[in-house]
Structures are given as C-alpha cells and as structure tokens.
Amino acid sequence: MSVAHYMDTMDYAPALEGSAEATAWIAAHAAGFGHFIGGGWVGAGRDGSFQTHDPSTGKVLAKLAQGTANDIDSAVAAARQAQAPWQAAGGAVRARHLYALARMVLRHARLFAVVESLDNGKPIRETRDIDVPLVARHFYHHAGWAQIQASEFADQLPVGVVGQIIPWNFPLLMLAWKIAPALALGNTVVLKPAEYTSLTALLFAELAAAAGLPAGVLNIVTGDGATGAALVDHAGVDKIAFTGSTEVGRLIRERTAGSGKALTLELGGKSPFIVFDDADLDAAVEGVVDAIWFNQGQVCCAGSRLLVQEGIAEAFIAKLKRRMATLRVGQPLDKTIDMGAIVAPAQLERIQSLVATAEAEGGAVYQAPGAQAACPGIGCFYPPTLITGTQPGATVMREEIFGPVLVTGTFRTPDEAVLLANNSRYGLSASVWSENIGLALDIAPKLIAGVVWVNATNLFDAAVGFGGTRESGFGREGGREGCFEYLKPAAWAALPLRAATASTAPSSALAAAPASPAVPAAAPDLSNVFAMPAIDRTAKLFIGGKQARPDGNHELPQFAADGTLTGEVGAGNRKDIRNAVAAARAAEGWSKASAHNRAQVLYYLGENLSARGREFAERIAALTGATPEQARAEVEAAIGRLFSAAAWADKYEGRVHQPPLRGVALALPEPLGVVGVVCPPEAPLLAFVSLVAPLLAMGNRVVVVPSETAALVATDLYQVLETSDLPAGVINIVTGASQTLARTLAEHDDVDGLWAFGSAELSAMAEKLSIGNLKRTLVDNGRAIDWFDARVAEGPLLLRHAVQVKNVWIPYGE
Predict the structure, then answer these.
(1) Which parts of the chain have pLDDT scores under 70?
(2) What is the DSSP string of 226-256?
(3) What is the per-residue pLDDT for 518?
(4) Annotated catalytic residue: which of 17, 116, 300, 301?
(5) Pseudo-torsion of CA 106, 112, 113, 116, nearest 10°?
(6) d(Cα 502, Cα 474) in Å, to the nearest integer?
(7) Burial per residue of 672-709, b for 16 or more beta-carbon CB atoms within 10 angstroms, e otherwise
(8) Alpha carbons 240 and 237: distance in angstroms, whole number
(9) Cβ atoms of residues 560 and 566 within 8 Å
(10) How would you class 449 by CB atoms within 10 Å of its CB: exposed for 0-12, middle for 13-18, buried for 19 or more?
(11) 3-state class of 21 per DSSP?
(12) Is 376 exposed, middle or buried (0-12, 13-18, 19+ CB in 10 A)?
C-alpha cells in the first residue's frame, strides 16, 4: 500500500516494535530462570519449575523456578545479613545506588518495555511511554529521600527485612513502587512477583546487580501462592507489603496478626467516574477511555463505574459509543493498537462470566460493531465493553471485574452522585469531571477514596501517595506518607515487653471482697450506725452524650490498691458497643467541624479537668496505689496531652505536591471516622487521654473501653465531657471486660479503626478480627509504654495513625 492510500483511507498498518533483544535475553536463560538470592541465581531448571506464557499468542516464553519454603529461608537470610550494613552505609550511599538504578532503567528502557509487553500483554506504547519512565521516576525520587533521611526522619528507623508481593497488572511498576522506598530508607527486600508475570522482576534484579547493588539487598523468589504464603509466614520478615486482591489481603492480615510484622495492603477497587452536566463531554469521553480501557481495564483503580448526570446521560453515552468504535485491539507489540491481551485464560473467563451475569440481571451489553471479530484469533483478547441499564445493587456494579468492562448509572443531584459513588465496599480512587472547580472541590472530600482526580484519571507520581480505604486496603505508596510505611518510630523500637499483669478481679464483687469473720473479735461499735450514709453513685456507661445503664444490667467491681471494694461500673456487652458505634456514627458533624473549633473544645476539656484535678488525683491514688505526688503528676500530664492535641488540631496539615505535570496534588489528612480505643490497665487517666485526644483532634469519633481495673477514673470524666461543649456521640465510653469488648469492636464492620493497648494477646486478636472491613489498627504488641514519655505517647507519632491521606489531583491550564 502507498502512503497516499493510507492518507485517503486513514487505515492503520501494523507497526511492530522489534523484540530481538528481549527474546535474546530470554533465550540466554533457556534452561530456566532461577531465583535471584544473595546476588546470584539459585534453583534454575530444577524439578517443580513452571512455564510462563505470552498472553497474546499462548506460546511459552520461559521456565521459572517454583519457590519453596527453603528458598524463602535462603532469601530472608541473605536479606537479613545485608540489612545492617545497608542501613549503616547511610542515606548518601543508598541515594547513589538508587540513582544508579534509575539510570540503569533508562539505559535499558526499550528492553524493559518489550519484555513487559511480551510477559503481560499490555500495549508497547503503555509500557514504553508510561510504565518505564515512571519506574525511573520512583528511583530518582526516592534517591532524594535517602539523601535527606537523617534530617527528615531523624526519629525513625528502617523496619528491617521487607517481604513484598506484587500483582501481574503492572509487574515492573509495582516492583519500583515497593522496592524504591524500601531500599532508600535502609531496608532489604525479598520480593515475590506474580506467577504470570515474573520476567521483568528477574531482568531488573540481574541488571541491578550489574549496576552495583550489593548482594542480598534485593532478592527475588518466583512461584505461586504457596511461595507468597511462605514469605508472609516467615518469622524473619519484619514487614509485608502486598498489592493484589481483597480476598488474599484478608488472609495476609489474618496470618500476620500478632506477629509484630508491619503491613500495608493495596487491594481492589470499584472506582466511580462522575460526570456532571457542565463537564467538557469530549474531554470526559477521553477520560473514560483512559480510566477503563487503559491496560485492558486490568487496573485496581480503573474507573469502572460511570455515573453521569441525568440531563446529559443520553448524549454522553452516544459520544462514548462512537469513541468505542475507534478503539483497536491487537498484538501488544503493535504501536498502533489501543488495547492488548488479557493476562491469562483464567482472567478472560472471569470477565466473560461477569458480563454474562450482567445480561442475566437485565443489563444491556454493548460492544462496537465488529469489535469481537476484530480481535486476534489466538491469544486472550476481549473488546471494550459497555453495560447500561443496571441497578446500583447489580453484581457488576459491586464486584471488581478487572477487565475492559464499563458499567453505567445516572444521578440527578451532587448529593445523589456522592451517595452512589460511596455505595461500595471499596474506597481506592474516584474521578470527578466538571468545569466548575468549586463543585469538583466540594465533591472530592466527600468521596470515600484514597485518591481523587479532578478532570483527569489514572495520574500517578512517585511524589504523591497512592492507596485506599475500606476493603481497598490501608497504607500509602509514594511520597512522604509512603516513606513512613517503611520506617518505625525509634522510641517504640526500644520499648520493653509488658510484664505479666495480675488477673482482674472476679465478676462478682461480693466474692472478691475481703471476707468478714464469722464471729467478731470484739463487740462492734454501734455509735455511728445511724449516721448519714454517703449518697450512692452509680457509674453507668456514657453513650451519645448521656449516661446509660448497661444492656445486661451487670456490674464490674472496682478495687482499691489494697484490695478493698471501692465501687462498681457497668459491664458493657455487644449491644452496648452497637449503641455506642451508632452514636459515634451519627456525630459526623465533629469530622466536618473546623480544626480551630475542635481545638477549642480540647482546650476546654483540659480546663475543666484541671478544675477537678484534686478529685481525679485522689481517685487514681486509691485505685492504683500511686503516691499523691504520682497521681497529681498523672493528672497534670493528662491536661498537658489535651493541650498538646488542641495545639496540633489546626497544625497537623496536608501538603501540596507538585508532580511533573501542569497541576498540583493536594495531600489532605482526613479522619478515619469511628475509631474503637481499648485502653491498657495502667495510667488509667493519662493513657485514656493520650489515645483519645489525638483522635479527637483529627476529627474522629471514638468508642472507648477504659482501663478494666480502674474504670472509675473514666466514669468520673462524664461531667467533664458534658460541660466542655463536646457534641453528643463524639466520645462514648463503655466499661467492662477489655478483651470481650475489644473483640466486639474488632468484628464490628461500622468501626473504621481500632487502637488496642494492653497484652500481646489483645493485639493479636484486634488485628486478626479486623479483617471483616479491613479496618486500620494500631496496637502495642505487648510493649510496655511509658505514658509519661511524650516521645512515645504524644504528637505526630500518634497523629499519623489518626488520619488517612487523600490525594486530590488538580490539573490546570486550557
């Protein structure tokens, strides 16, 4: 065909990227790839190897080693041996290594891009123009964090040996997202790539070693889910970083519970793409193309739920269908195609099954005329697909398809758009399209998502944190907030384990009270038998701003340090926790209040506590055996914590990131929502305030289980709370058995976070039972915290856990 012909017809001719260099590299490992452990290849060609395939042809690409528990042992041992020297080398040395890795990626950019397309099936223009440059950007960016680590993270230490498990949709990019911050901050890594797509990880390890990365700093072990499980379970791993499905994320949370391992989970999503009637519709259509048909829709943050304002829905869908007719599906190495191959037959079958379910539930399935026939005859291909006419509860509206399938719905008002967008168990990302920037920035904070793009979609950068909430996981990758995921507070790292505490008093007050002699030793003195008795004070629960009797009408005895019975508190149960959570959920106005207003309430709490300081000191001394001086010191420290939290309330602020584009990304710290707090037995007032105050300062509402053995200190707070302008439901106090109530809080799916302090067993239970909604947890793993030490019990250390960061991307310009 002549050039003139193509100018007349505008047909596309194939424009294949050369693959000779990539196939030569694969051929050099014809006997099979081994694991990369301790700077060399291990286990190549042994029994138990498995094959990896080109998804566009089905042909075998290479043979990979199946990792065993012994391989994981070897990799962790190599990483452990290398970690101390790597940390001791200092940030400047590590920065140079990361800089070298960035340069290495750019030198071999074409090789990486082609191997990624062959292994994953994504179009070469995506791997070449998006993935590989962003990989290099991550190493450059984190080289900078390594260089300034000593000043910017002076109170932090690397976590140690990090186990990382990455998915198959962005094999090379996910590797960079995880390896770059881990290595920059002094950790060493054992990484397991996805079974389907391990080749670029092995290529990276080989070239990194050639670039001078010390042996053992980076180790790659290939294999299936059993290999990943061995890595998760390994006692020598200090942190697990996982990207993948929510189902597997839950299993990892459960298996790491109580182990002391740090954990970040970046999981699934069902992200809304919201188009208002004042949006630039042509630009929004192109946004949809990038949101759902980029990487064949195999993107955790894909904008797979299209929500269009009712007045423009018909016109918008018509434009979208016209655009779908121009999308081309073909061989990944063809530079003229828009979509490549689905990663594997199993994933293709899942997509087909969910589309069939949508039809069975009444949805209308649309593919451009001839789109199915235009797909290559071999390999795993699926055309761009649009489903209309579905209800909000339809399977395809709720479930992550992870393929090139877009589901649509409509809304009338901005409030309805927010309700529909948040009608999901996920909370990863969202896109908002409107020419009214005021409207867009009003909607963005209301969306339950870790990332929001305004008039854009699928923007990523190493300087901007990425991650979700709800069943999309927890933790952030990228930016300053992502660095903290690979660090641990130096002050906490030095804490000793908590000493075994005496068992709490029996549930029966009378049984536990000192026994009276059967016959008095002397005649009793009856002179005051008719004296005026003290008025009985019944310590109830505090729910929704009111004192409430416990549902079960049971009481928990409170004993003085000398064993005498000093009073009783209500023994809360599951229903009391339910009522307290409902009250906290209803108090959402606190989260919307200005930081200044929250600060004033906290100052007022401190003021009112100070006015009754002597009374609280006496109660603390009686219940704990503290000296009067120690008790007064605890009260003064608690007042100081309230003032400190008030001071931070309007000063723990977000950041403005400036990624390399025309625009900004606003990193906004947002409250978690409703947080359960289980206080330790010691320092009953100071520990209570130290945990609750930072949560309140950041706009959370709390359900608190106070010290089980000294709960009367917390019940004495009721009048302080009632007279300090604190809105009803912001603080709810349920006294009772800590372990039992902590279990209920952990299992409650309307609780967004759980802070549990006390025994190691309590920590393990809190983490293990939090998997229902994957709530964020903060536990002490049985460490003995000195609540008087501000380094471990005050300030940013706790404030970071009281918020989740939402990054709102705002491009600008014509």
Answers:
(1) 1, 500-537, 814
(2) HHHHHHHH-TT-SEEEEES-HHHHHHHHHHH
(3) 37
(4) 300
(5) -150
(6) 35
(7) bbbbbbbbbbbbbbbbbbbbbbbbbbbbbbbbbbbbbb
(8) 7
(9) yes
(10) buried
(11) helix
(12) middle
Diameter over CA atoms, the chain: 123
Q: Give the pLDDT score at 499.
A: 80
* 618 belongs to the catalytic site: no
* Pairwise CA distance, residues 438 & 456, whole Å: 16
Q: Which pairs with CB-CB distance under 8 Å and at least 24 residues apart come from 523-529? A: none
Cross-strand partners of 477: 466
Distance in Å from the first CA to the final CA of the chain:
39
Rg (the chain; Cα; Å): 29
Quick one: how many helices (H) and strands (E) in the chain?
Answer: 34, 31
Write down the catalytic residue from 266, 471, 555, 682. Answer: 266
What's the pLDDT at 533? 56
The pairing of beta strand 473-474 with beta strand 262-266 = antiparallel
Instruction: Find out whether 281 and 315 touch, Cβ atoms under 8 Å.
Output: yes
* Structure tokens belonging to residue 445: 């904070």
Q: Burial level of 514, CB count in 10 A (0-12/13-18/19+)? A: exposed
**Is 300 tagged catalytic?**
yes
List the 473-474 sheet strands across, edge first: 40-42, 35-37, 218-220, 188-192, 161-165, 239-243, 262-266, 473-474
Residue 74: how many CB atoms within 10 A of its CB? 20
At position 135, the amino acid (one-letter code) is V
| CA atoms of 499 and 476, how far apart (whole Å) | 34
CB atoms within 10 A of CB 781: 20
Residue 523 has a pLDDT of: 47
Residue from 113, 126, 80, 93 nearest 204 by CA: 113
Got the DSSP string for 397-440?
Answer: HHS---SSEEEEEEESSHHHHHHHHT-SS--SEEEEE-S-HHHH
From 189, 187, 190, 207, select the one nearest 199 (Cα to Cα).
207
Q: How far is CA 582 from the centre of its chain?
A: 24
Size of the chain, expressed as the number of residues it contains: 814
Dihedral sign for Cα 246, 248, 250, 252, please: negative
Instruction: Name the amino acid, one letter, at 788.
Output: F
The neighbouring-strand residues paired with 772 are: none
Residue whose C-alpha is closest to residue 29's, from 196, 198, 170:
198
Tally Cβ neighbours within 10 Å of residue 19: 16
Residue 776, Cβ density class (10 Å: 0-12 exposed, 13-18 middle, ≥19 buried): buried
Both tokens of residue 647?
Answer: 């001071």
How far apart (Å, rounded) are the C-alpha atoms in residues 189 and 199?
Answer: 18
